[in-house]
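[09:14] KT: can someone run the structure on this one? pasting the chain below
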Amino acid sequence: MQAYFRRFQQLAEAGTYHELETLPLPQPAYFNWTADIFEGLHVAAHPTKTALVLADDTGTQEITYAELAARAGRLLNFWRQRGVGPGAAVLLMVPVCAELWDTYVAGIKGGQVLIPTASIMTVKDLEYRFGRLLPAVVIADAENAAKIDAAEQALGQRIALKMLVGGPAAERAGWVGFETTAGLPAQAEAAPTRPDDPLFLFFTSGTTGLPKVVVHTHFSYPVGHLSTAAWIGLRPTDRHCNLAQPGWAKFAWSSFFAPLSVGATLVVYQGSGRFAGAPLLAALARERVSTFCAPPTVLRLLILEDLAAYQLSLRECVSAGEPLNPEVIQAWQRGTGLLLRDGYGQTESTAMIYNLPGSAVRLGSMGRASFLYDIEIADDAGQVQPDLAEGHITVRTDTGRPNGLFKEYFGEPERQASVFRHGRYYTGDKAYRDADGYFWFVGRDDDVIKSSDYRVGPFEVESALIEHAAVLEAAVVGVPHPIKGHEIKAFLLLTPGATPSAALAEELFAFSRAQLALYKMPRILEFVVELPKTISGKIRRVELRAQAPQPGAEFFYQGEGARR
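[09:31] RB: done, structure tokens below
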């Protein structure tokens, strides 16, 4: 595998990504990313190079490749002293901190199964997770340690090893601090892990219901995320910044595997308090960040700033999480001079569809299929759809082509069977493909609106609405209608300074009527102060469909084709 990673790095540096399509990808009997790639390639070649920069508004902490390997080795040896062997589940519930990377590197090397969990999870959320699988080890800060203790007590179960980050463990009964690993050997032997062995359990973001538990392997993530590194355009000389919460799979995508697999430096920005665009932009300039990834939610706030006022060193910029609206791409390019490239993937996969560096980008398109995936638009029966015909985004699984797909849904064989059928993996998303191989997102299966026998994807309507200067974010859903079946409703979050009013609603109705076909335009607008989202920044339209309108915040279209 080292030879493959080296060749990938060479092609990426040269920008000849098309050669990846024909580059043979081996599937060895054993593979351990920490031992074979992180240590075997990068620590061996450049031990003193900075692997991780933790930056906040007061200063930075830097950790080299060799230091990160040593920290992880001591942690793994501590686990082994406490009887934590291969296959043991390790749950992480911490904010951004160096111990996150220690745990990832150690867990991969030791063959443990890692369960990243967002810090915003509640005690009830933890009870649900512990009920599915009680971990052998938990790692948390003081705030989350209290939640874990409460969930243990509610279930009447005890976790064998609880490790506290960022505070004296002696003050919390039953917990030990990371300082207990000091003095242990920095070298640790790697477990003989197979490519198909479980490595990560990710709870999905739950856009349409209760979270699923996705099982990724020692192949699907460490190797599969080479597609993510290609999409970002990462090189060993890059200083990469990705904005993602640790409990989200996208953190593992771009804050771990993509940069560290190519030997780059990761810059992690830790803002204090509520998110603000100016401090982040200042940090990107100060830390000389060259590649940047952020969800559209963040980018919509950044483009409100004077981007040209910052001395940025950016070379490549990408976005994922929700589809990227053309207006955001254009505003970012006006402010930075750089093209913001979109990409598509899931918790169940790595980057599947993207716009590669140097490629011709079509605004509003997700791009083309990754070199690791056979992507086709198919119907319910598995038949490939013609160009421009809407259908399911599917991945061929009957061709033997390696990819970054997950192994299974933990403990849910029926759900597994529902998405793997006809020799395909059904993503649950709808799109169409044009004659040149570009994919155009329509929406989640459950989010596509059926109104008067028309099918309307929310993304197109949302993209039109946010082109209005008063609209910061939009979320579109279908609401019941006695004749049409469903009517299109838009929930709107306004830009700072814009005020909800009947006059603004009329202006937005007229604006959308000019941008969209009559059957696609929203007939109901509701102004909101926030939109419900998952930890990954995806809008939870299922909540919007269920919630009652706020008094005085809802407005109805009165023009042609108005509600009857």
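[09:33] KT: thanks! The chain has 15 helices and 28 strands.
[09:34] RB: yep, looked fine to me
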